[in-house]
Amino acid sequence: MIAQRFDNGVFHITVQDNEIRRVVAKAEGDPDRLVAAQNLLAKLDPHDERAVSAVKSLQSLDLLAKTQPGLTDEFFTEDLLKTLRPNSNPAEGKKLSETLGLNDSSLVSQFSALSFVAEPEKYFGNANIEIIPEANRALPDPSKGWVDMMYRIKPGRTDNEYGPKGKGEIDIWADGQKIVSVRGNLGATLKKDTPLALEGPYFKFGTYRLRIPGTFSFQFDEFSQASSKDGLAPLCSAH
Question: Are 84 and 62 spatial neighbours (Cβ–Cβ below 8 Å)?
């Protein structure tokens, strides 16, 4: 129900309401634009193959503009590239959205804040998740040094068929600073026909990546988990 991810080199944290995913914090960019982009994707139908294809095409164009600016400057017009930026010309954005088959032209200029995610279609549809950024703070960049992460996680859903009912809560700190709070339906709905033991969240760690050339490595150290703050190792501090 919560994950630390690296997509296209961007460190970010996601939560899920059943199968629908939301980014709640990332290592760069504007948190408000991130929320706005996700709100627009929430209006799309995850079963609409045309919409999925359109958003993936928009994502490819935006990532190409960010990673290969010289190439895009040579082969794409300046007016086209401007449509991918915030506060772009609405007329140009409408033209591109119609070409891609998107009904909402505002997605063209707002999607840039979310274009780094690996599976944008997982962000389609409504999710009962409230994201409350803390003072527009971004996550630290792990490529520049160690990052100490701390999470307070209280699982919960209002639609459970058994067990406790109530909104879930997640609070996240990085290097001792509060980054974001999350409230809402977190994780999977508990169903009576597929009962699970009420044992709370568990921790899982490993490398999950696409098969691409090159090597990938990371370092992980000093993990501590407890049912209260007093039980955490001293290194895990929050302010």
Answer: yes
Distance from the first to the final alpha carbon of the chain: 24
Q: Which residue has the tokens 């307070």?
A: 152
For residues 175 and 239, the answer to whether their CB atoms sit within 8 Å is: no
Q: Is the pTM of this model over 0.70?
A: yes
How many other CB atoms sit within 10 Å of the CB of residue 1? Answer: 17
Alpha helices (H) in the chain, listed in sequence order:
31-41, 49-67, 69-75, 78-82, 90-100, 106-110
On the question of pLDDT at 173 being above 70, the answer is: yes
Could you tell me the residue ranges of all domains in the chain? 1-32+126-239, 43-125
3-state secondary structure of 158: coil
Give the list of residues 6+ apart from residue 144 with CB closer than 8 angstroms, or none: none
DSSP H or E segment with residue 21: strand 20-26
Assigned token pair, 76: 């794409």
**CA 115 to CA 72: how far, in whole Å?**
16
Lookup result for tokens 């939301």: 22
Q: How does the average pLDDT of the chain come out, rounded?
A: 86
In the sheet with 177-184, reading across from the earlier edge strand, the strands are 129-133, 177-184, 168-174, 149-154
CA distance 12 to 115: 12
pLDDT digits (tens, 9 = 90+) for 48-75: 999 999 999 999 988 888 888 887 888 7
